[in-house]
Write a structure and sequence with these properties.
Order of helices and strands: H
Helix content: over 70%
Number of strands: 0
Distance between the termini: 137 Å
Number of helices: 1
Strand content: under 5%
Radius of gyration: 40 Å
Structural class: mainly alpha
Largest sheet: none
């Protein structure tokens, strides 16, 4: 009978150890889930930041193109005006 009680005690001790290990594993699993959720939030924030950066980059290039278009137009107008002045001065000197 003593060996049966000893066996039952060992089985009970093993079950208690397994219960402790299971509790610890569940705790670690919950911690890992929390960390994964935080990583997902950080990834979402980074994605939003990248999208905002792309939008500003697009807007910046739109402004550069617009200003470049105006500059080109002004340059052409200035060149035409300069040619006109040269022709006018040339005709006045004759």
């Amino acid at each position: 009978m003593t060996t049966t009680n000893d066996r039952l005690d060992r089985i009970e001790a093993t079950l208690e150890k397994l219960a402790e290990d299971l509790t610890q594993m569940r705790s670690e699993q919950a911690e890992m889930r929390s960390e994964q959720a935080e990583i997902r939030r950080a990834q979402a924030q980074m994605s939003n930041d990248q999208d905002r950066g792309r939008k500003w980059e697009d807007r910046t290039w739109d402004v550069v193109k617009w200003v470049g278009g105006i500059s080109a137009g002004l340059s052409i107008s200035a060149a035409v005006a300069l040619v006109g002045l040269i022709v006018r001065l040339g005709l006045n000197n004759q």
